[in-house]
## 1
Amino acid sequence: MSIRHITAVFQYPHYRGSERLVLLALADYANDAGVCFPSVKALAAKVRLGVRQTHKVLSTLRRDGAISVESGSGRHIVNRYRLNPDKFTVNRNSLNPATLNSDVQFTGVFCSTVTAEAE
């Protein structure tokens, strides 16, 4: 388990839902170098998703550059995943506001949740 990678995932507001869960699970499996090799079946069970949905989420994370995947060579050979925490850094100009919660407010490179005040 890599606390550094888990913390990086929690601090990055771009991913929500399934993508965030899978990224957290990979960070939990990862060593300090950000490398892990869980099977898709084990990953799906850990995050309570189907295998097919887990494959879709992994494809999204790979496409976005959040993870790198070194394919296993053959049937029943697991892939090797590498987390790319440099892709988790919050950059106000690179985020798509439509994908963020409306209650996220940027202050410098950090973000915070704004709570609604009772009237």
## 2
Amino acid sequence: MSITFSQHNNEIIVNNNKIVFEHRIRYVKEVENSLIVLLGIPNNVRYLNNVFGVSEKGEIKWRIQSPSDGYSVKNQLPYENLFVNGTEVVVSDFYGRRFSVNLTSGEILTRDIAK
């Protein structure tokens, strides 16, 4: 079953619940009963961990874990891309560092680098 939602700039409406983020929404991808939201962060702004899981009820379930909690990450940057393959969610930053994300908790499961 697909989730009905609408988005505009930094707002998303899911199930008549409006969520207003600090920055504009770059991508929204539906995975199972969740929406994964990646915010577009301006170059001059320091805002990390810019990926959120939103329920079909329109509630924020999680914000992505900081990669520095489990990995040695120098010069952490906001995420730029969001990829979904079935139930696998992967985000990447400007340096090509890819992080696999747990769909239910936002925990980072694995890390690698795109070549």
